[in-house]
Structure formats: C-alpha cells, structure tokens
Amino acid sequence: MHCDIYKFLKHDDMYIYIARPDYPNDTDEIKDWLGVLPKDFRAGLGRSKFVMHLDLATTPTLARVDKEEVLAKLASQGYFVQLPPQDVMRRQAELRARESQDSIYNT
C-alpha cells in the first residue's frame, strides 16, 4: 500500500496518511487527495503541507504508530490520523491554558 503523508501548520506533530492504492497509475491527473477526509474535520485542519510519499510494503516499521493499524485504517477509510504523543499533547494543552490565563490577568 502506498500513501502520501501531510502535516498541518495549525496542528504540531499531527500527520495524516492518505491511501494511494492505485499508485503509480493514479498520477495522470491532479487530484485532491485530502478529499477523503470528512469535510468538518478537514476544515478545522487549516493549510496542509505535503511531507512525503511512502510505500508501506517496503517499510518495516513506523516511528510512532503501528504499521498494521495504519494499513487497516487506510484500507477501511482511506486515511489515517497520527496524533502527537500524549506527553506532547499535555504540554501543548498546559501552554494554551497558561497563555489564556495570562491574557485574562495581564490586560
């Protein structure tokens, strides 16, 4: 299974894998590969940036996610969302809370 990986400027350390089951025979026309994402979800992501193309058949392991889980999601829904590790998410939430609190009391 081939896939393209995208990241989003509004969401640090979040990556979305988009299935490309017909690669390389699907490159004749320009296509909105992110069109497989639910519209509401996609709207909240902001601007995307292509990271890389990956052939999962020749990739033994992935750094932060289980390869079999990625393959299953790509096959069933056409995409996989890789969220940041919990410690990163917690740190980001704490920072946002602190910034919000500072803006309330420093005005």
Beta content: 25-35%
Note the overall shape: elongated
Low-confidence stretches: none
CATH class, named: Alpha Beta
Strand order of the largest sheet: 3-1-2-4
Domain YcgL: 1-95
Organism: Psychrobacter cryohalolentis (strain ATCC BAA-1226 / DSM 17306 / VKM B-2378 / K5)
Protein name: YcgL domain-containing protein Pcryo_0807
What order do the helices and strands come in, and which of them pair?
Layout: E1 2-8, E2 11-19, H1 39-43, E3 48-55, H2 67-77, E4 79-82, H3 86-105
Antiparallel strand pairs: 1-2, 1-3, 2-4
Brief descriptors of the model:
alpha+beta, NE1680-like fold, 34% helix, YcgL_dom, YcgL-like_sf, YcgL domain-containing protein Pcryo_0807
